[in-house]
Amino acid sequence: MARFAIKTLEFDKVKEILANKAATALGRQALLTLRIASTFEEVKRLQEETAEAVRILDEGRRFPFGGAYNIVSDVKRAELGSVLDPEALQHVQTTAEAIRKMKDFLTEEEEIAPVLNEIGSALQVFTRLEKQIANAIDEHGEIKDNASPKLANLRSAIQITKNRVKEKLDSILHDPNNQKYFQDNLVTMRGDRYVIPVKQEYKMNFPGIIHDQSGTGATLFIEPMAVVNLNNDIKRYFAEEKEEVERILRQLTQNVGQDAAALLASLDLLTDLDVICSRAYLAQDQHAVRPQMLVNGKVEIHQGRHPLLNKETVVPLDVELGDKFTMLLITGPNTGGKTVALKAVGLFALMAQTGMFIPALSAKLPVFRAVYADIGDEQSIEQSLSTFSGHMTNLINILNEVRAGDLVLVDEICAGTDPNEGAALAMSILEHLHEERVLTMVTTHYSELKTFAYGHEGMENASVEFDPVSLKPTYRLLMGVPGSSNAFNISRRLGLAEDIVTAAGRLLDQEHVHMENVLQELEGERRRYESGSQEIAKLRLESEHLRNELAHAKQEFERKRTEMLRKAREQADDIYRRSRRESEAVLKELRSMKADFDTKRLEKAAEEARKKLNKTFAEETPLPEGAPLTMATAKVGLNVFVPSLGKNGTITSVNGQDVTVQVGILKMNLPAKKCLLTKAQPAHLPGTESQTRKKAGGSYAHKMIVSKNASAKQEIDVRGMTLDEAIPVVDKAMDDALLAGITQLRIIHGKGTGALRAGLTAYLSTNRYVKKLEVAALEAGGSGATVVDL
Known about the structure:
Blueprint: H1 3-8, H2 11-19, H3 25-32, H4 40-58, H5 72-80, H6 86-108, H7 114-121, H8 127-136, H9 149-173, E1 188-190, E2 193-199, E3 208-213, E4 219-224, H10 228-258, H11 260-286, E5 292-294, E6 299-304, E7 317-321, E8 327-331, H12 338-352, E9 362-366, E10 371-374, H13 388-401, E11 407-410, H14 419-435, E12 439-443, H15 447-454, E13 459-467, E14 472-479, H16 487-494, H17 498-507, H18 510-594, H19 599-620, E15 639-642, E16 647-655, E17 658-663, E18 666-671, E19 676-677, H20 688-696, H21 700-711, E20 715-717, H22 723-740, E21 744-748, H23 755-764, E22 772-775, E23 785-789
Parallel strand pairs: 5-9, 8-12, 8-13, 10-11, 11-12, 20-21
Antiparallel strand pairs: 1-2, 2-4, 3-4, 6-7, 6-9, 13-14, 15-16, 15-19, 16-17, 17-18, 21-23, 22-23
Helix pairs in contact: 2-3, 3-11, 4-11, 5-10, 5-11, 6-7, 6-8, 6-11, 8-10, 9-10, 18-19, 21-22
């Protein structure tokens, strides 16, 4: 990769953003010096590493880098024989602990991150070294008392001796005979010796060693002879303690030096993991996607966003290059986004080849051997305007080094000189790059280059969009459409006098004017086509939505149908099993009776058994609504629909294969098969109900109403049922309540997920017998019950 291209594209700024995601100091250093891969296999592995890290982060897991330090120099010093201080040893211990935790973490993620687990498996564990340092040094970087038995004894002796010194001095201070000698009644320290402040005039009366005096000379700090030996012991203990601490640090440092090579190797791998994790964090932050790396030289970016611009306000761009054409000429007004498009494509290539994801909806990129750029960005405050000679020097260097398949980005090619000569030079350079099969993107204001691209296969025009209404750029890149510089429109917007702009227009040659008019007409056609295309896309989206809804409805219908069939099969199987059991019981009874009964009595018993089984089967098998009746299923009190009359009625008597049906005030005899079972109540004429009851006397209908009055309830409990199971129970309870004259029913359905309550509410809202629905009072169940007014 050409170094000046990396600088020109401002890739260092991207690396700085990436480095801010690092968890360790070594990771940050590695990211700032990130190397750009140039082989397909290496780039593919880098992208896979980032993808695995993103998967782990998306699951809410976080890489355990806590406690890792840059211990490279400390480990190398230990290897050379230097003695490390407690803080450095503590950093070694916490870093070794971070390496161990990372290894365990990646082992758990082996299924979704095999490549990272491969790196983690190469990490070495330093459990022995961790324990040795942790047992000797506390979290504050101090040597523990129990770091060695000798150190523990020395520190205990120091403390005991100090206590003895204080006790001795306290006895001297509190002796009434000595009170006049003391300047202050306290014990202090001079150096590492305990002393007492004594008045200067009494120094001969107080035996001891003078260690210091006050600034005025009025006070002498004297170590009493009674504690001199004790202070000497303390000093000796301190010296021995220092030697023991140095021995412990030396031993721990030697242990670090023995593991130096393995520590540094594992630290390198931990740094690599920090680099990978930083790329994943950046991908999440930028809402970036993994680029599809191609072997052929094709660039295809959809809705790509410049990584250094605000992701909320940047206008995304669509770019294609390398498939049908290898050269793209971008034209359009200044400040329209041409240079941003060049830099974005260059940065996408460099980001992909360092393992970073691309901030776009989708991206396809080849692995470039090199990326070259000559961009004089006059909108950047960090760069000054380039001269023609400076640009030409860069172009010459590029032409000398470039190879087929490389990426070349040139901003304002051959600008800064005579337009005719500049355009001619530009066309010659572009022709050379085209023949060399170099992927090239250039920006220009030369009108000659627009027609030049039209006349060459493998070259394509593009432009940055300019809004003719607001006279402002939209920053959108339009493929296949050459653009106008819009110098006149921009000048008008900036406030140039109209007469000057008009006079300038008259000075243009007719060919240029015609060209600009054609471009404006093409732009108008493009806008109309784009508007129509958006409308078509909207309609297509709506039709797709409707198709999905229909497919979902069909799927739901099939599910309910399958569920109903399953329940029917289960019910049928249950009836069959019960009938089978009863049959076997009857047969067993018949066999036992065979020896005791004669033939006629046996036939009679068999007939009774058949009738019993038929009755059981008829009672257990529910007749579906709308099914025609038979001699076996016709019963007094059943509600039926008479098709010949188009009315509902009630069976009042059964006479073999015929039945008598009460339809209002009319009674009629007809075959049972001419009646269809229904749940609907028959309509009665006013006043006929009491007459019918009187005429029927003790009829079934009267008995049924009396029975309903006795069994009707004002409350039912459907908790634990499904909606399909609860609806028949609710229907029956409502029927009983209506027959019994009850006007209010409380349904207990429970709270749960709310699905049962919602389903019953929707069902009852369409029932013509329901007057009002409301949630029960708090003391009556609250939202766990519904009150139905009938």
